[in-house]
Amino acid sequence: MIQYLLLLPFMLLAASIYRRYYPVKGVPCIETESDWWNDTNTILDIRDYNEAARDLHSDSVNIPYAYLKRFYTEIPQGKIHVIAANKLELNLGLRFLMRKGFNVASYELKECPCNQKQKKGVLNNGIR
């Protein structure tokens, strides 16, 4: 019985670490200025307001990750391109959006630009 009580906190910790740090599969890293970019996608910026104000896209929706639970209904349906400040914010935001049924087509990290020359089958943080 004590073994199960000791195992429970470990399982909760492992689930939290997975949700925060393990990359989301199937979402490639694409910069908005690249050739692959499609203008029909909605740009969703989940960085803080003060970070996003430095380089706002004219047609982007800025909802920081901390406010996603409250304002996710304001995000238009269709393909979404997510802009995040770091990998932790990206992983949490992508998992939340996918759980709510949004079609996340791509992402972009502002602290480390996309590098298309990665290992075979892997585009930066996303895994194919």
UniProtKB/TrEMBL annotation:
<protein>
    <submittedName>
        <fullName>Sulfurtransferase</fullName>
    </submittedName>
</protein>
<dbReference type="InterPro" id="IPR036873">
    <property type="entry name" value="Rhodanese-like_dom_sf"/>
</dbReference>
